[in-house]
Amino acid sequence: MIEQGNTQTKIAIFDNNRLKISFTHDDLNVSVVASLFQTYNLTRGIISTVTETEQEVLSFLESHLKHFVFLNEKTPVPIRVQYETPETLGKDRLAAAVGATFLKPRQDILVIDAGTAVTYELIEASGTYLGGNISPGMTTRFKALNYYTKKLPLVKETDDVPSIGNSTITAIQAGVINGLCYEMDGYIDELRLKYPNLLVFLTGGHTNYFAKRLKNIIFADINLVLVGLNIILEYNVEN
C-alpha cells in the first residue's frame, strides 16, 4: 500500500489484512519501490496520491504486480459514496472512510484526519459516505500566520499549551492548538445531536498530539488510511 501525501509518502506491507510493517519516505521514486520487491514477495498493490506520481513509478508497479490499483474516482469501493464531485475527493479521505467502516461496521462514524489539512468525513451506519469538511492543519496555520503578517514569528507546537498566551509565541500556540481542539470537539458535539452513538476516529500525522487533548472519546489510528487502502485493494481483487 502506498499513500503519497502532500509532504511524505507512507508505504505499508499487509498480510491477511494485518499490517506487518510500514515505512515513511520524503520522496517516492523507482529506487524506493524496487527495494521493496527485493525484500518482500509482493503480488498486489495499490497507490493513493494527493499529488503527482512519477510515471516511471506507476509503470514499475504495473509491470511487477499481478494486481495493481491506482485509486481514482472510478475505482470500486465497498461503501456508497454520495459526494457530488467524486473526481475532486481526496483519495486519502476516501480510504480513511473505508478503513473506519471496515474496523467498525454498521456504525455512524466521524473520521478526523489531522495533517497538512484537517479533514472531517461522515459515514452513516448504512455504509454511506455523506461527505465532509476541510480545514487548515496545525502546521499550515502556524505557517500562514507567519507568511501573511509582517511581525508574527513562525512557531511550532509544544506539549504545554496555556488557555491564554502571555507572550506572542504562546498566544499563537494557544490560538492555533486550542482553536483546533475546539473545532474538532465542536464538530463531534454537533454531529452527536443527530447521531447519538457516533464513533470518532482520529488519524493523520498529528494523531498522537491531538488524541490526548480532545475532550471526546475517540479511536486513534495513525494507519487508518493504509487500512482503508488495503480493504479497497482486496475488494477489487475479489471482484
Radius of gyration (CA) equals 19 Å
| Global outline | globular
User: Biggest sheet: strands, sense, closure?
Assistant: 6 strands, mixed
- β content, as a range? 15-25%
Count the E strands: 11
Whole-Å distance between the termini? 18 Å
Class inferred from helices and paired strands: alpha/beta
Average pLDDT, rounded to a whole number, is: 93
Q: Helix amount, in percent?
A: 25-40%
Overall description:
There is one protein chain. The chain has 239 residues and is an alpha/beta fold. The chain has seven helices and eleven strands. It has helices at residues 30-39, 55-64, 91-103, 138-147, 168-194, 207-211, 224-238; strands at 2-4, 9-15, 18-25, 44-49, 67-70, 80-81, 109-114, 117-123, 128-136, 199-203, 219-220. The protein has a six-stranded mixed sheet with strand order 6-9-8-7-10-11, with helices on both faces. A five-stranded mixed sheet has the order 3-2-1-4-5, with helices on both faces. Helix 3 (91-103) packs across helix 7 (224-238) and helix 4 (138-147) crosses helix 5 (168-194). The mean pLDDT is 93.
